[in-house]
Structure formats: structure tokens, C-alpha cells
Design a protein that fits this description.
The complex is a heterodimer. In chain A, the strands form four sheets. In chain A, strands 15-12-14-13-17-18-16 form a seven-stranded antiparallel β-sheet, with helices on both faces. A five-stranded antiparallel β-sheet of chain A has the order 5-6-10-8-9. In chain A, strands 1-2-4-3 form a four-stranded mixed β-sheet, with helices on one face. In chain A, helix 10 crosses helix 13. The model of chain A has no long low-confidence stretch (mean pLDDT 94). Chain A is α+β, with helices and mostly antiparallel strands. Chain A is 35% helix and 19% strand. Chain B contains 14 helices and 18 strands. In chain B, the strands form five sheets. Chain B has a five-stranded antiparallel β-sheet. In chain B, helix 8 runs antiparallel to helix 11 and helix 11 runs antiparallel to helix 12. Chain B is globular. Classes of the chains: A alpha+beta, B alpha+beta. At the A-B interface, strand 9, helix 8, helix 9, helix 11 and helix 17 of A face strand 1, helix 1, strand 8, helix 7 and strand 10 of B.
């Protein structure tokens, strides 16, 4: 493991039996797991390169239990790592040796479906897809659609501010969540927001969303639901150069068209996907765009024509337009299976997640190629091209000495390049432990201190999910200290009126 | 009182640091167009951002614009309009309602977060703020977010800054998402519905797949003789329920037809297109029926946000109980209420009704002596108040910035 986690508290570890007993008093029966064999299922999340069994696993099924667990842990100075379905790709739910792993998997009930207010009130352990399924009979769905939607939980989506293919048009989790019930590390239960479009006061829901489990434990979520578009069609467009594909993306946006989804794959990704799902992808192109238009049929038909013309104008070499749902799904099948497809051509891969301004796409791809040569590793690229979110998949073999280290260094350089090109370290997977140590490449110490002061407002002891997101932990007392800048008392020479 | 007109972020840092050292709270303004919203502040100096007004960068193809906080909103709207783009959240112009000159800056727009009719589809100011540079109450410049749409790197402090009324930090530069303007807009008008039926019609429209981007109801009113901006569309002594569809021309027209059929049980619809439709929605966005220069100009105005399906019950009861006048936006989820003048601006009734519906109410327009005795912003649960105080202390521990604006009696 290449990443340093906070030092284990030996005094806590020495009291393990007592802690397990105390948790059993709160969550009776099988809700507390403490045998090494059973805890193995929790030792990592979707970032499987990192593994660490927790001190103990607890699976409460009521908000009151969550509150009692956190209150107990806060009182005893015990660290807590919250976990939803464990699909994080950035290690957000990686356990700590001396920490309680708090699983929300038993919070599996949808509490209320309110079609008149167009919201669903749900427990956090419900999967993203299950929400859409629960409202599908009335033509509704929940818009954010991370690739893991069959497994990932809505609580985890809130913690990570998850995106998905369709967030270009419909927004990320933060744009689709209205309220929550949250338990603070102190055990205090708070309700934030509800069924209204806006909350009163500071937008606490906004800052809880994407806080990676560092601010509180969510026990209920209220999400917006939308009517499903009447129809959707996709174009699959091939280009002889990546630059032309990038230009096509820019021109579509420039023409005022916001597709439901706009995805790009490079040659290695196209070949891997085609070999896996036989979607009929052209193999002689350097870049493939899948562009989906959704809405009323009359609109979709018109926009398909406009997008096709733009693609032709950018020198596309192939262009297929879906004429049925089956065909549209086939276009997507390869893209959606891109990760497992790459898994077939390489023993291991690392999935990166930087975002760049759309215009920097050719530059970024050229840099990734150069870095691949430098590190002597292959890389297949899939992008959410519409919003500049890159997913380079770095191919390596963990059994070859030194390869994982090279792959990680390659990935870090890609993310640094994203920042250099005006972008950011992570578009949708979160910082977690994976990008934690790169945070200073994007933020100054002052920027990071300001973020950690927010953490202090929610969890002054720093017991909730420590070691994630921030490379250096500061005590809240230290962060709250004012540095009075002496000698600058007089507004100097600023114009007065 | 000193007004300090800063030229750059460095000046802002210097002013805030001096204010900290002298323990002198400062009021932060752009054009000062919204100074009448909130409580009177316990401040000794004004930090004026209006000279910090440059367009840092505008990249239409990236759908983003980066602006200094003091950039005039109207100039920015013209600039992006020239590229056929807009802020999709339809920022409200508060000037007619508050009776102030038609001014306002980007910083004020974000800090107030007052979002127009398209909120139901496009979200609010908070959904379009991608990044910010700001000076905290520690006197430090920091940045948060970025210049790309998709970003989850670190806490999303932008969400806190939007709608914080200048109480957390002084924003010096913001990056906002811009969106293409729709090619066409069509508005369906239904006449003569009472509030409850209108709420049902709006709920039906918003629950349809026709992508409605505006849903408002102007009830029949004895107070409003004529509403500016409506031209000959009506609204004089007759209720008007309006539903907007936007997009490429063929689609907007097609969906207008489908929606007309869906709404047939509620009555016969008429259609307003493009220019007429835009004027109508500007009227609703800026709450012109309650304009300071109009018949109800002297009445206090509340902005009530609630679950949309409960809007009509809340609004109709409130109007009846107080003898006031209401209009509905966001499909019932936003109620503007002008209530007959009273020292308490009917706050107990408004707050009780809002709480019962699961909503909240802000006293947007009221005389200063009323605001001295009435909470302008909705009182919240003790746990939320305490957490919000801790959050504020994490940005501005000495309460140097806009002290006292959000909470009555929070000043020294």
C-alpha cells in the first residue's frame, strides 16, 4: 500500500473486545461483525488495490442506532468509516485498522414516493437504479446514472456527488437532491431541506453532497425525479483523428445543442470494447463518438439531422444512426462495458477521472500518449466528452514487479496535466485516498485549510473518515486561530468615497 | 461611514485584515441594489466591489464565463446574449420590486441566489456556480471549485457561498455555467382557474414528459388593476395560469400542442409566442405585480418556498387570512405574497403556514422598522442554527462580514 493512513490508536485497538460489546448493545444480533473471515468482505471498496480490514463492522438499521453508535464512538475517541455499497473508485470507504466500519446496507427501504411533488424519499442503502425502477410505472426516473447504478447506493451517490453519462444535460447528484436526514459525529440527528426546491439558510445540503463521508452519516435522502424523455436516439460517429472528434464535440455544444450524453473512446478502448461485446464499432478509426439525443421524437429527429451535418463538417469517416431501441442499446453496450472490456486485455487497470476544459482534449490526449511512452504502459481512453471528464484506463500487471508503482505515477501525471490544462483532479469518482496526495497540486494550503475548517464545523474531533481527501490533517483549534496582520490597520491607500 | 472602493483581490484582503485587526465589521456591496434585504447591519465601513468589474474570460464553446464579482449584471447578460447564451437559472432583477435603480452585480446575484421561473428545470444560482475566488473573514484569499462543469475535487464550498448574503466570504471572482438560449418559446395560458385547480394543472404539466420550463399562476386579484408586461394577455381581474415550453422551434410548438391536449380538462388554452412569452415571464420573474411603483408598492412582500403541490393551499389561506395578494411560480413551489402593512408584516401567520407546509419564508421587502422587529430570514431548528453558526465561524470567526444581516440581534 503506497498511501499513508493516520496512525492507528493502540489504546483503541487494545479495547477492541469492549468496543465490540458496546456496539452489540446498540445493534443486537448479526448487526455487529468481528470475525476476520466475515470482515474480509469489507476490507476494500471499488479501488481494490488498497485493502485494510476494519477493527469491527457494524450494520445498524435505524437512525437511532446510527446516532448511538456515533455518540459512543465520539465519546470514546474511536474513528468511524461510513460505507454504502462499497463501489467507490477512489477508496472513500477504505476501512481503518482502528476504526469502526459503519455500513448502511440495511437502510434499504424507499420511504415515500410523491409524484405530485416529483420527489422520492428514500433510505440511503437503496440502489440508484432501484429508485428509477420504483417510479418507472408512472413514467418517471432518477436522472443521475453512474455506471455502477445497479449496485451503488443513493447514500453513496450523495457522499460522492456521483455523475454518469447523462449528467451533461441532467446534472450530477447535487443538482438532483433536495434534502436529507444526517447524523453528525456527535450523534446529533439533523434534517436538512425537504421537498422544497431550496433550503432556508446556508446551503448545507449542497456542501454535504460530495463531502465523501467526512461530514456526517446520511440516513435518509429526498431526490427529485423527472419524467422520462419520450424517446432517445444515438449517433455513432468515427473519426480518423482525435482532434476532429474533439472539434465535433465543441461544434455541437457551440450550436446550442446539449445532448443527453456525448461519449468518446480512443482506438485501444474501441478495440477492447468491440472484442468484448461486438457492438459493430468501426475498428479503423482513431476516435469514436456516441452522441445521444433525447426528448420528443420531433426534436430528436431534427437534432439528429443537425448533429450528423456537424459531424460530416468535421470530417467524420463513419456515421451510424440508431433506428431502434435495440440498436441504440447496442451502440452503448461497448461504452458501458469499456471497463470490463479493458479488464480482458490487461490483467489489471487503473481508472483515472480528471476533468479538463473541452477544448484541451487533443492536448490532453497527446500528453497521455507521451506519458504512456515514458512509463512504458498502455492506456485506453474513454471520456464523457461533453463535459471534458476523462477516464484514462492505465493497463498494468500487478504481478510484474514495479508495474503498479509505474501505473500510479502515470496516473498522477495525467491528473497533474488536467490541472495544468485548467481542469481538476476528479470529475465524479471523488478524491478519497486515491487522489488525496495530489490535492496540493490543485489547491494551496490556504484553500485546503478553508475546506478543513468546514470539517471542523461538522466533526471537530476529526473522527469521521479521517485520512480521506486531505493529505495533511490539522487540529481544529489550530485552523481556527486568527493571524492578525499587524501594521496593516489603516486601509492604506484604497480609494475612499 | 467609510466606503472603500477596492481595485483588486489584494485590496479586499487588506480591507478585511484591517477590519479584523480593528474589530470593525464591514458591509460588502456591489452596486448596493439589494441592501434593503435583510436586517440592518452592525457595520462601520462599506467594502465596495463595483470597481472589480472585469470579465476575466468568456469561452462560449466551453459554456463558462469567469467574472470579477463587481461586473454589472446587465452588461454580462448583454455580453452572453450576443453569443446566444444565457444564465439558465434566470436571475431575478430585484430593482422593480425594491424600487431601486436598475443595477446589480454578478457577485450580488450569486450572494443573493434569487432564481427565476426556470428553476424548476434548470436549478438555481447555486447549481450554476462552478468556482470562486474569495477572501474569508480570516483575511485570506482562497479558491474553491474550478472552471469545468464536472468537478468533485474537495468540498463544494461554492454551494455555501451562493445564497450566503455576503456573510461567509467576500467573493472576488466567480466562474458560472452559461447555456445556449432556446431557439423558441411558447406559453400556454389558462384563464379563470382558482388557486387549487391551477396548482393541479401545473402539477399535471410538470409531471408530463413535455419538459415544462415555467409554471406560474396569477390569481384573480382585486388589488392589481393592470399588470405591466402582460400587454393584452390579460390578468386584469381574471386569473391567469401560464406554462412555458422552450427549445428548438418544431419541438416547442409540438410540445405546446401535446400539453394543450393534456390540460384540456382544465379549460381552453391560448398561446403566447416568443417576444410576448418572454415579456410575460420577465413579469413573473421580477414580481412586477408587486412592483414598488405599483398599487401594492407600500405592502411588505414575502418570498415563500414550499413543496410545489402544497402551494395553493398555503397561498390561498394566507391571502384570505391577511387580506393580502399572492402569485405563484415554480408550479406552486414559490409564492410571492404582498400583505397589507402591519408592524409585524403578518410574520406569525406567514411562518406558521410555511412551517405547516414544510416550507420557509423570507421577508424580501419591508420598511426598516419592520425588519427590526421581524426575522427577515426563516427561523430554523436549533440544531441547524448551531451548525450554521459553526460553519460561519469557520469562514469568519469574528463576524466581520455583513454582521447582523441574517439574524436579528446577531449584531453587537
Amino acid at each position: 500500500m503506497a498511501i499513508m493512513m493516520p496512525a492507528s490508536d493502540q489504546a483503541v485497538l487494545a479495547r477492541r473486545a469492549e468496543i465490540v460489546a458496546a456496539l452489540r448493545a446498540i445493534v443486537p444480533g448479526e448487526g455487529v461483525i468481528d470475525t476476520p473471515a466475515e470482515m474480509r468482505a469489507y476490507e476494500s471498496d471499488g479501488l481494490t488495490a488498497y485493502r485494510q480490514p476494519p477493527m469491527v463492522v457494524v450494520l445498524p438499521d435505524t437512525t437511532e442506532q446510527v446516532s448511538l453508535i456515533l455518540k459512543y464512538c465520539a465519546g470514546q475517541g474511536i474513528k468511524v468509516v461510513p460505507r454504502g455499497s462499497g463501489t467507490s473508485l477512489s477508496g472513500g470507504a477504505l476501512p481503518l485498522e482502528d476504526g469502526v466500519l459503519l455500513g448502511l446496507g440495511k437502510f434499504k427501504r424507499i420511504r415515500e414516493i410523491d409524484f405530485d411533488n416529483r420527489v422520492v424519499v428514500t433510505e440511503p442503502g437503496v440502489t440508484n437504479l432501484a429508485i428509477s425502477q420504483a417510479v418507472a410505472h408512472a413514467g418517471f426516473y432518477y436522472a443521475p446514472d453512474p455506471s455502477s447504478q445497479i449496485a451503488c447506493s443513493i447514500g453513496g451517490n450523495v457522499a460522492e456527488n456521483s455523475g454518469g453519462v447523462h449528467c451533461l444535460k441532467y446534472g450530477m447528484t447535487t443538482n438532483n437532491v433536495l434534502g436529507c436526514e444526517i447524523v453528525l459525529m456527535s450523534g446529533e440527528i439533523l434534517r436538512i431541506g425537504g421537498k422544497s426546491a431550496e433550503n432556508a439558510g446556508y446551503d448545507l445540503m449542497g456542501v454535504i453532497t460530495g463531502s465523501e463521508g467526512l461530514l456526517g452519516v446520511i440516513t435518509e435522502v429526498t431526490v427529485r425525479i423527472l419524467q422520462k424523455p419520450e424517446t432517445a436516439r444515438a449517433l455513432m460517429v468515427g473519426f480518423a483523428q482525435v482532434e476532429a472528434a474533439g472539434e465535433c464535440v465543441a461544434r455541437i455544444i457551440g450550436a446550442g445543442i446539449i445532448p443527453g450524453g456525448m461519449e468518446m473512446m480512443d482506438k485501444p478502448a474501441i478495440h477492447a470494447a468491440e472484442a468484448f461485446v461486438h457492438a459493430g464499432y468501426p475498428l479503423d478509426v482513431e476516435a469514436l463518438l456516441i452522441i445521444e439525443l433525447d426528448g420528443p421524437k420531433i426534436e430528436v429527429d431534427e437534432l439528429i439531422t443537425r448533429v450528423e451535418a456537424i459531424a460530416n463538417g468535421c470530417g467524420s469517416t463513419t456515421c451510424q444512426i440508431s433506428t431502434s431501441e435495440a440498436e441504440r442499446n447496442l451502440f452503448w453496450a461497448g461504452r458501458k462495458a469499456a471497463f470490463p472490456a479493458v479488464g480482458r486485455i490487461s490483467p489489471d487497470y487503473l481508472c483515472m477521472d480528471g476533468t479538463i476544459p473541452r477544448g484541451a482534449l487533443p492536448k490532453a490526449l497527446a500528453r497521455i500518449r507521451e506519458l504512456g511512452e515514458k512509463y512504458q504502459l498502455g492506456c485506453a481512453n474513454v471520456f464523457h466528452a461533453g463535459d471534458g471528464n476523462l477516464h484514462p484506463l492505465i493497463l498494468y500487471d500487478a504481478n510484474k514487479p514495479g508495474e503498479i508503482e509505474r501505473a500510479e505515477a502515470f496516473g498522477a501525471d495525467i491528473l497533474r496535466a488536467c490541472v495544468e490544462f485548467g481542469g481538476v483532479l476528479t470529475g465524479e469518482h471523488g478524491v478519497g485516498i486515491e487522489k488525496r496526495d495530489l490535492m496540493p497540486d490543485m489547491f494551496s494550503e490556504i484553500d485546503l485549510n478553508q475546506q478543513q475548517r468546514l470539517k471542523c464545523a461538522f466533526d471537530a474531533q476529526g473522527l469521521l473518515n479521517p485520512g480521506k481527501v486531505f493529505p495533511t490533517l490539522h487540529r481544529c483549534a489550530e485552523l481556527g486561530r486568527m493571524h492578525v496582520h499587524a501594521g496593516k490597520l489603516a486601509f492604506l491607500d484604497i480609494p475612499r468615497f | 461611514m467609510d466606503t472603500l472602493k477596492v481595485r483588486d483581490a489584494k485590496d479586499v484582503e487588506e480591507v478585511v485584515r484591517a477590519a479584523i485587526a480593528n474589530e470593525q465589521p464591514i458591509e460588502i456591496i456591489g452596486h448596493g441594489s439589494k441592501r434593503g434585504i435583510g436586517h440592518a447591519m452592525a457595520t462601520n465601513a462599506v467594502l465596495d466591489l463595483s470597481a472589480l468589474n472585469a470579465v476575466t474570460s468568456y469561452e462560449p464553446n466551453e459554456l463558462i464565463i469567469t467574472l470579477q464579482a463587481g461586473a454589472p449584471l446587465n452588461d454580462v447578460l448583454s455580453l452572453i446574449d450576443a453569443k446566444n447564451q444565457q444564465f439558465a437559472f434566470e436571475p431575478m432583477d430585484t430593482a422593480p420590486l425594491l424600487g431601486t435603480p436598475a443595477l446589480g452585480t454578478i457577485g450580488g446575484m450569486v450572494a443573493a441566489g434569487l432564481t427565476g421561473p426556470r428553476r424548476i428545470r434548470a436549478g438555481g444560482a447555486r447549481d450554476h456556480l462552478l468556482g470562486a475566488h474569495a477572501v474569508s473573514g480570516f483575511g485570506d484569499s482562497f479558491k474553491t471549485g474550478g472552471k469545468v462543469v464536472k468537478n468533485v475535487t474537495g468540498y463544494d464550498l461554492c454551494k455555501l457561498l451562493a445564497g450566503s448574503w455576503g456573510t461567509l466570504s467576500v467573493m472576488t471572482e466567480v466562474t458560472l455555467k452559461v447555456m445556449p438560449k432556446p431557439e423558441a418559446e411558447r406559453t400556454l395560458l389558462l384563464r379563470g382557474l382558482d388557486d387549487a385547480v391551477a396548482n393541479k394543472a401545473m402539477t399535471a404539466a410538470l409531471g408530463s414528459p413535455f419538459d415544462v420550463s415555467g409554471a406560474a399562476h396569477l390569481p384573480k386579484s382585486a388589488f392589481r388593476a393592470r399588470i405591466e408586461g402582460l400587454g393584452d394577455l390579460g390578468g386584469e381581474g381574471e386569473a391567469l395560469t401560464v406554462l412555458r415550453l422552450e427549445g428548438i422551434t418544431a419541438s416547442a410548438a409540438h410540445r405546446a400542442g401535446s400539453l394543450r391536449d393534456l390540460l384540456a380538462p382544465f379549460g381552453t388554452t391560448t398561446l403566447a409566442e416568443d417576444v410576448a412569452s418572454a415579456a410575460l415571464w420577465a413579469t413573473i420573474r421580477d414580481v412586477l405585480p408587486f412592483a414598488a411603483g405599483g398599487a401594492l408598492g407600500a405592502w411588505p412582500v414575502w418570498r415563500i418556498v414550499c413543496p410545489p403541490a402544497s402551494g395553493a393551499t398555503l397561498g390561498a389561506q394566507l391571502a384570505r387570512e391577511t387580506g393580502g395578494d399572492v402569485i405563484y411560480d415554480w408550479g406552486g413551489g414559490l409564492i410571492w405574497a404582498a400583505l397589507p402593512p402591519r408592524p409585524d408584516a403578518h410574520a406569525p401567520a406567514v411562518r406558521a403556514r410555511a412551517n405547516a407546509a414544510g416550507g420557509h419564508a423570507t421577508l424580501i421587502r419591508a420598511a426598516e422598522d419592520v425588519r427590526r422587529d421581524v426575522d427577515v430570514f426563516h427561523p430554523q431548528a436549533p440544531g441547524i442554527v448551531a451548525l450554521s453558526e459553526r460553519v460561519r465561524a469557520g469562514f469568519d470567526p469574528k463576524s466581520i462580514l455583513n454582521r447582523g444581516r441574517l439574524r436579528r440581534g446577531a449584531g453587537p
